[in-house]
């Protein structure tokens, strides 16, 4: 260990992670309970902080406010149940590669505290979740072996593909990106997806080599091609580019991987990840894709959005009016229509014993819609869509994140120039991820049944049953209808759940996801708790946990569950379920602020670059600065996460452990 001086770190926020590895120090941007000396400025220019509030659709005529749903107590009495869901949180994150610095942290030594807390909430409910680092920007990503500006592990090159509607920049990244992911996985249980650049068949395999070496078994898979059906359109391939052309490229990639001893695990690939616009999954399956490549694949995949806002964002085409499209998201038919084209694909995946993953989705491509994608209505839609995908035998689905210029993020850090006094902002669909994690649980046996058609429910009041270990565990009840506080009609529901073969409990427990309106952006609560409103989020749930005890009528084998307008209820049939007492995650992370006048350190940037820190070239040889993480040859052992130690700021001295 040595002591370094020079280079004023300025405002540094040290995080203590309770019961976490002592080898990694994590820094957060926003101190908890910080008192502002000046009024916070209002940010309205960026899509992530847009103030658009839409008008709810009218109450539909003939709405049945007293629907009845009959449920079987035993799964073996139910026909049409989904496959058992065995892979952690059903919803995961798909993070555009160009914004990972914003969400994960500047580098492996500066990890965003709110991100850890937001993941910890899901981990406590689901056990673990998948996070993908990729998207359109992965296709032009290239690894560099020298430090980037400000010691970031990723930066955008100042050039754009003008033919692509998403206008994604080229990406430069360093080996530190893998260490950042590895360090995060030491604190919270994240499994990662990465993407091999596919813009050329002169394959750049650094992401596979270092991903496997540093992340080990925390690397779940490697995407081979992102929306290849768009490759002709966006200039990545000479047209026409057809499914067989993609197969030929994938065969070439596999041959290259097979010949590379630095990629020891050969069966981690994910494909075809088509967007189902130019050609769809069945066009790929018809080439013999599954039989040809299944021994090299971790999973089959697709990517799809229900709509797009590309004309408004980038010009060309017809601009969609958010008010006009809002009703499209407030119906059960949306999720059904999105899933139906993939039913054959999920069946083929089961026959091949492979997961089928919706690898990228959200409310609308090109950033979503103002007032739609960031509303409580979108939270209801995402939950319904998630349950419908699970019922349709998708294994998992990844909700996409962009930067400050999109409407649909599940959470967003503050703009850089406000990061010293603003906290994060949670999007409504974060609650969707949280609720589904709780609904599926950690048993790895959950099976989903859509009861909407069987019970002849309205498209605006769908319902699902969740079975675990062969027993009825929970019911999910939706009410998309917003009666604007009763001023436009009456739409509160009283849903009777009948158990015709007996076994009705004396009472059931209910958790509600609530907001004033489907148009609401803020004051959204899950079981009485909220993350906070704009610029108030540190990733921890606030408020008292509120679980409602609803009495049943065992003599008539029925329980009547109130569902407000609008609203969502998760009904627990087991009063001892572990999640009834779970609000905030049992382990969370907090920050403490240090000003420029005390507890600061000065470091020579050259010294910092040679610590942890080291140049990409040196660190590739070191593997890790954590004891026991490097083999005798100096290479990283894949089974041990390479913790990069930054040390701790203490009494004006920065101690960098393991420096060389």
From TrEMBL:
<feature type="region of interest" description="Disordered">
    <location>
        <begin position="600"/>
        <end position="631"/>
    </location>
</feature>
<keyword id="KW-0812">Transmembrane</keyword>
<dbReference type="InterPro" id="IPR052974">
    <property type="entry name" value="GH79_Enzymes"/>
</dbReference>
<dbReference type="Pfam" id="PF16862">
    <property type="entry name" value="Glyco_hydro_79C"/>
</dbReference>
<keyword id="KW-0472">Membrane</keyword>
<dbReference type="InterPro" id="IPR031728">
    <property type="entry name" value="GlcAase_C"/>
</dbReference>
<keyword id="KW-1133">Transmembrane helix</keyword>
<feature type="domain" description="Beta-glucuronidase C-terminal">
    <location>
        <begin position="463"/>
        <end position="570"/>
    </location>
</feature>
<protein>
    <recommendedName>
        <fullName>Beta-glucuronidase C-terminal domain-containing protein</fullName>
    </recommendedName>
</protein>
<keyword id="KW-0732">Signal</keyword>
<feature type="transmembrane region" description="Helical">
    <location>
        <begin position="640"/>
        <end position="658"/>
    </location>
</feature>
<dbReference type="InterPro" id="IPR017853">
    <property type="entry name" value="GH"/>
</dbReference>
<dbReference type="InterPro" id="IPR013780">
    <property type="entry name" value="Glyco_hydro_b"/>
</dbReference>
<feature type="signal peptide">
    <location>
        <begin position="1"/>
        <end position="22"/>
    </location>
</feature>
């Amino acid at each position: 260990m040595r002591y370094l001086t020079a280079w004023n770190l300025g405002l540094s926020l040290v995080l203590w992670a309770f019961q976490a590895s002592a080898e990694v120090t994590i820094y957060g941007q926003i101190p908890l309970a910080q008192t502002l000396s000046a009024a916070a400025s209002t940010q309205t220019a960026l899509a992530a902080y847009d103030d658009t509030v839409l008008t709810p659709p009218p109450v539909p005529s003939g709405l049945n406010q007293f629907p009845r749903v009959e449920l079987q107590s035993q799964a073996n009495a139910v026909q049409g149940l989904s496959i058992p869901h065995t892979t952690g949180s059903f919803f995961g994150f798909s993070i555009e590669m160009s914004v990972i610095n914003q969400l994960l942290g500047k580098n492996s030594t500066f990890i965003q505290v709110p991100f850890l807390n937001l993941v910890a909430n899901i981990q406590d409910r689901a056990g673990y979740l998948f996070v993908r680092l990729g998207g359109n920007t992965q296709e032009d990503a290239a690894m560099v072996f020298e430090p980037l500006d400000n010691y970031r592990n990723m930066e955008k090159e100042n050039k754009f593909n003008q033919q692509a509607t998403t206008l994604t920049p080229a990406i430069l990244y360093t080996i530190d990106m893998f260490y950042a992911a590895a360090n995060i996985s030491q604190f919270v249980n994240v499994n990662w997806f990465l993407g091999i650049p596919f813009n050329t068949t002169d394959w750049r395999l650094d992401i596979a080599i270092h991903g496997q070496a540093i992340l080990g078994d925390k690397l779940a898979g490697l995407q081979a091609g992102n929306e290849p059906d768009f490759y002709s359109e966006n200039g990545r391939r000479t047209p026409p580019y057809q499914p067989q052309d993609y197969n030929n490229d994938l065969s070439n990639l596999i041959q290259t991987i097979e010949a590379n001893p630095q990629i020891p695990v050969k069966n981690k690939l994910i494909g075809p990840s088509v967007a189902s616009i130019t050609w769809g999954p069945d066009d790929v399956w018809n080439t013999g894709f599954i039989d040809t490549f299944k021994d090299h694949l971790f999973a089959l995949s697709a990517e799809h959005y229900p709509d797009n806002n590309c004309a408004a964002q980038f010009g060309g085409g017809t601009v969609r009016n958010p008010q006009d499209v809002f009703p499209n998201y407030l119906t059960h038919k949306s999720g059904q229509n999105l899933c139906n084209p993939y039913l054959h694909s999920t069946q083929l995946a089961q026959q091949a014993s492979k997961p089928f993953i919706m690898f990228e989705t959200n409310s609308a491509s090109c950033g979503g819609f103002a007032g739609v994608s960031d509303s409580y209505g979108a939270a209801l839609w995402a939950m319904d869509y998630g349950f419908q995908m699970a019922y349709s035998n998708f294994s998992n689905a990844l909700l996409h994140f962009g930067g400050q210029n999109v409407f649909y993020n599940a959470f967003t850090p503050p703009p850089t120039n406000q990061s010293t006094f603003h906290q994060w902002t949670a999007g409504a669909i974060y609650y969707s991820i949280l609720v589904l994690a709780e609904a599926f649980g950690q048993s790895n046996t959950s099976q989903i049944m859509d009861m909407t058609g069987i019970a002849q429910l309205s498209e605006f009041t769908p319902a699902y049953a969740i079975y675990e270990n062969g027993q009825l565990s929970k019911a999910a009840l939706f009410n998309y209808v917003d009666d604007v506080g009763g001023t436009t009609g009456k739409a509160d529901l009283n849903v009777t759940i009948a158990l015709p073969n007996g076994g009705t409990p004396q009472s059931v427990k209910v958790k509600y996801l609530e907001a004033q309106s489907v148009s609401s952006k803020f004051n959204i609560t899950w079981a009485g708790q909220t993350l906070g409103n704009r610029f108030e989020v540190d990733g921890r749930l606030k408020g008292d946990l509120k679980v409602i005890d609803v009495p049943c009528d065992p003599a008539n084998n029925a329980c009547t569950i109130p569902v407000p307008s609008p609203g969502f209820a998760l009904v627990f049939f087991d009063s001892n379920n572990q999640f009834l007492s779970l609000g905030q995650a049992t382990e969370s992370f907090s920050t403490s602020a240090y000003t420029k006048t005390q507890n600061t350190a000065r470091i020579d940037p050259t010294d910092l670059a040679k610590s942890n820190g080291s140049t990409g070239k040196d660190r590739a040889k070191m593997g890790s600065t954590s004891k026991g993480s490097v083999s005798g040859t100096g290479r990283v052992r894949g089974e041990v996460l390479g913790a990069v130690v930054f040390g701790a700021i203490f009494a004006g001295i920065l101690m960098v452990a393991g420096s060389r």
